[in-house]
Amino acid sequence: MGGVGEPDWGPEQRGAPLPTFRWEQIRRHNLPGDKWLVIERRVYDISRWAQRHPGGSRLIGHHGAEDATDAFHAFHQDLSFVRKFLQPLLIGELAPEEPSQDGPQNTQLIEDFRALRQAVEDMKLFEAKPTFFALLLGHILAMEVLAWLMIYMLGPGWHHAKPNIFHKDPDVTVAPVFLLGESSVEYGKKKRRYLPYNHQHLYFFLIGPPLLTLVNFEVENLAYMLVCMQWMDLLWAASFYARFLLSYIPFYGIPGALLLFMNHIPREIGHEKHRDWASSQLAATCNVEPSLFIDWFSGHLNFQIEHHLFPTMPRHNYRRVAPLVKALCAKHGLNYEVKPFLTALVDIIRSLKKSGNVWLEAYLHQ
C-alpha cells in the first residue's frame, strides 16, 4: 500500500471494476489492525495507513466500519489534496442497494445538514479574516502586559479549556479519578472503589482543574506532537507553557499556577451510539448564552455547538452560522440548548454528583 510519493493505485485506476460490499461485510472490519471505513459510498482499507494519518491513528480509527463522510468533510479543508492519499486505499464501494449509512439514522437530517454545510461554504464562512487574528494576537499581548502591570501595582494577594464517547474522547476518559455517565454503573458493578465517587462533585474543586487538563488532555497532546514529530506545534506549545509558568509561578507557586488551568465536562457521556454527525455533536454539548463579554471571555467557544459541527470554521463566524444551525434543529426537533454561564458551571457539578450517586447505587446493590 503506497505512502507519500509511492503510487499504488487501487482497482479503479488499474482498469478493474470496483468490488461492492454490504454493510454486514464492512462491520467485520473494525478491529485493531483491520479497519475499513466508508466515505461518499466508497470503501477504504485504512488498516496499515492509519498509523500515518496526520490527525493520529485513533481519530480516524474511531470511524472504523462506519460512514465517515461528514467527519471527513468536517476535519479536512482541502478535500482534493486529501483524496490523493485516499485513492491508494480504495478497495470498493457500497452495493447499489445498500443505504449510505449503516443503522437507523435520519437520512433527511443528514441530507439537510450537508446542504447546510454547502450553504456555509458558499457564504465563505470557512475563510479566516487575518485582521481578526492579528487583533486577537495584539489583544493577548496587551492582556499579558496589563496583567503584569496589575500584579506589579497591586501585589499577588488577589485572585481572580467524537465527542463524549468513552475510549474515543480524551476529555471524558478521566476514570478512575472521576466517573462520568455510564462508567459509573460499570465501576459499581465491578465493585471498583478507588475513590469515594459519591463525593466526586466535592473533591473536583481540589484536584479537578489541574488533573483534568494537565494529566489527561495536555499531556496527550504533547505526546502526539512528539511521536509525530510536529516540531512547529511543539515549539508553539512550549512557548505557551513557558510564558504561563513564568507569569504565575513567581506569585502563586507551582500549585497555584496549576489551579489556574480550566477544563470542562460535557453534557451527555456514554458509549458509542453510532449517530449521524449532526446528532452526535448536538447530543454532546450545549452553548453558553452569547454576549460581548462572554464571546470575549471564552474566545467565542461559548458557541460549542457550532464549534463541534464545524471544527475548521474560524471562530469569528460562529455567530453568523448559529441561526442556520438553530433552524436545522427546529426542523428536525433536535434540542439546541443554550445555558447562562453560571448555569453551565453549576451543571458540571450536578453531573459529577449524579454520576457519583449512580456508581454508589450500582456498587451497593449489584
Question: What's the structural blueprint in terms of helices and strands?
Answer:
Layout lengths: L19 E2 L1 H4 L3 E2 L2 E6 L2 E4 L11 H5 L7 H7 L3 H8 L3 E5 L12 H16 L7 H25 L28 H7 L10 H28 L3 H29 L17 H8 L2 E2 L3 H7 L5 H6 L8 H15 L5 E2 L1 H25 L1
Parallel strand pairs: 1-5, 6-7
Antiparallel strand pairs: 2-3, 3-4, 4-5
GO cellular component, one term: endoplasmic reticulum membrane
Main location: endoplasmic reticulum
Pathway: Lipid metabolism; polyunsaturated fatty acid biosynthesis
Give a summary of the structure in a few sentences:
With 366 residues, this protein is α/β, with parallel strands linked by helices. Helix content is 52%, strand content 6%.
What percent of residues adopt helix (DSSP H or I)?
40-55%
Cα-atom Rg, whole angstroms? 23 Å
Q: Roughly what fraction of the amino acids lie in strands?
A: 5-15%
Count of folded domains: 2
The string of secondary-structure elements, in order, is EHEEEHHHEHHHHHHEHHHEH
Determine the structural class based on helices, strands and strand pairing: alpha/beta
Our count of helices gives 14
Could you give the order of strands across the largest sheet?
1-5-4-3-2
Overall mean confidence score, pLDDT: 77
Report how far apart the termini are: 50 Å
> What is the makeup of the main sheet?
5 strands, mixed
The tally of beta strands, per DSSP, is 7
The parts where pLDDT drops under 50 for at least 5 residues are 1-9, 156-161, 210-217, 255-266
Choose one word for the global shape. globular
GO biological process, one term: unsaturated fatty acid biosynthetic process
Protein name: Cytochrome b5 heme-binding domain-containing protein
Subcellular location: Endoplasmic reticulum membrane
Domain Cytochrome b5 heme-binding: 18-95
